[in-house]
């Protein structure tokens, strides 16, 4: 799991300063967890993401964005509640989900939205 700053987000995910239309910059599908250190549900899903990062290593990237430290990034995606999860497939539009999703639901989204087995 890698924490993203605005700069690394622009390089690895989407350069929203240069592109109006969605253009994914990465080479693997990814999940971006918008979180905060003080958020209880965020703490609950963190170990699940660590496990998924191991399980899908080389097939999928899992990134985290600290909404307190990266307020501009959170605002750019209209993050209102946390955790908010952005599922980013390689060739399709990203999809947002909110709340602490159980591992089973995350795996289903990885398979159906991100097309990763």
Task: Lay out the secondary structure.
Elements: E1 2-3, H1 6-12, E2 30-35, H2 40-55, E3 61-66, H3 71-76, E4 84-88, E5 95-98, H4 103-112
Parallel strand pairs: 1-3, 2-3
Antiparallel strand pairs: 2-4, 4-5
CATH A-level architecture: 3-Layer(aba) Sandwich
- Beta-strand percent range: 15-25%
Order of helices and strands: EHEHEHEEH
Secondary structure: number of strands: 5
Which regions are unreliable across 5 or more consecutive residues at pLDDT < 50?
A: none
Q: What kind of sheet is the major sheet?
A: 5 strands, mixed
Physical arrangement of strands within the biggest beta sheet: 1-3-2-4-5
Helix amount = 25-40%
Which CATH class is shown? Alpha Beta
Principal-axis shape equals: globular
Tell me the number of helical segments per DSSP (H or I, 4 or more residues long). Answer: 4
């Amino acid at each position: 799991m890698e924490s993203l700053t605005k700069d690394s987000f622009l390089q690895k995910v989407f350069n929203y300063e240069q592109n109006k239309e969605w253009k994914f910059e990465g080479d693997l599908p990814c999940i971006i967890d918008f979180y905060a250190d003080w958020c209880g549900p965020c703490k609950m899903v963190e170990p699940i993401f660590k496990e998924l990062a191991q399980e899908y290593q080389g097939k999928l990237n899992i990134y985290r964005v600290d909404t307190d430290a990266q307020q501009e990034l959170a605002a750019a995606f209209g993050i209102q509640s946390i955790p908010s999860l952005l599922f980013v497939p390689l060739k399709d539009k990203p999809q947002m989900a909110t709340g602490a999703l159980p591992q089973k639901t995350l795996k289903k989204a990885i398979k159906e939205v991100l097309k990763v087995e």
